[in-house]
């Protein structure tokens, strides 16, 4: 049993936001352009509405400009592609995101491919994914970038450590496995990437110096899956009904926090762990887009 360090994404994100705000202020004083992020929101899915409103709020907090482009859920694919083209062509907009998921009648990959890679601050365009995989300068996807930054700024050195990631999605697990295994600052880990077909998962997770759960199954990671003294990063954020909350729901991580935390040297909470870092990573990418 040990007293784990609770890695606060809220505190780390606040620190980074202050740095970004100071950079924006300097840019203003030097007569340089203020970063301008646009977000395209199709339809009115509750989750997507919330994510986009956070993004707009975050921009205001650091002094960025932002534009929200709202479209009805019945927008055609070609109309949406035109919206993307207009943003590509608009010199005022430095970077933009198209909030996912999109309605079923729209081919998401077609839309993402249409985004100018130099404005693709989500880092989802294949050319940016390719650049990231090759270790070239580019926009890195927000959640993996946020996690690497969170570990670095909380003095968790992953170099030479065994990082086990559960979950291989294109937005979290897979790019994170690439970033952590690169020969780069805040990386150089030995990475094992697990997924639903992984056999003997518990045996593998028990070898992890750093265990990262990105599954989407609340409380899936239990005490018996974690090595004594491990660092645990919980990416999971599943909405579960909670009558005590104004919104009617709470967020649950993939890790059974109360049971697992006494075994860890450090652990991220949900909420307040990876979530705020994902948000701040989008700001970092938007700043990169204008610089
Ligand atoms: P996803 O696309 O649904 O991927 C889930 C991954 O987990 C898949 O690779 C799946 O394996 C794997 N998996 C599912 N059940 C498993 C099991 N029993 N054992 C081992 N692996 C299993 O999810 P995602 O988009 O990566 O998101 C994961 C979680 O992170 C969700 O809760 C999401 O809300 C959250 N999230 C949080 C943030 C944040 O900022 N905090 C950002 C993004 C996502 P297969 O590939 O074999 O199906």
Q: Mind sketching the topology for me?
A:
Blueprint (H helix, E strand, L loop, with lengths): L4 E2 L2 H21 L6 E7 L3 H17 L2 E7 L5 H13 L5 E4 L9 H7 L11 H8 L8 H12 L8 E5 L6 H9 L8 E5 L6 H5 L4 E4 L17 E4 L3 E4 L7 E4 L4 H4 L5 E2 L6 H17 L1
Parallel strand pairs: 1-11, 2-3, 2-4, 5-6, 5-7, 7-8, 8-11
Antiparallel strand pairs: 9-10
Helix pairs in contact: 1-10, 2-10, 6-7, 6-10
The protein binds NADP nicotinamide-adenine-dinucleotide phosphate.
The site of NADP nicotinamide-adenine-dinucleotide phosphate (NAP) has 25 residues, from α10.
Provide structural commentary:
This protein is about 40% helix and about 15% strand. It is an alpha/beta fold. It folds into two domains: about 30-115, 3-Layer(aba) Sandwich (Rossmann fold); about 140-275, NAD(P)-binding Rossmann-like Domain (Rossmann fold), CATH 3.40.50. It has a six-stranded parallel β-sheet. The protein has a three-stranded parallel β-sheet with strand order 3-2-4, with helices on both faces. A hairpin with a 7-residue loop joins strand 9 and strand 10. Helix 1 packs parallel to helix 10 (about 275-290) and helix 6 crosses helix 10. The longest helix is centred in the N-terminal third of the chain and has 21 residues, at about 10-30. The protein is globular and about 55 Å long. The mean pLDDT is about 95. The protein binds NADP nicotinamide-adenine-dinucleotide phosphate (NAP). NADP nicotinamide-adenine-dinucleotide phosphate binds near residues 166, 195, 196, 216 and 274.
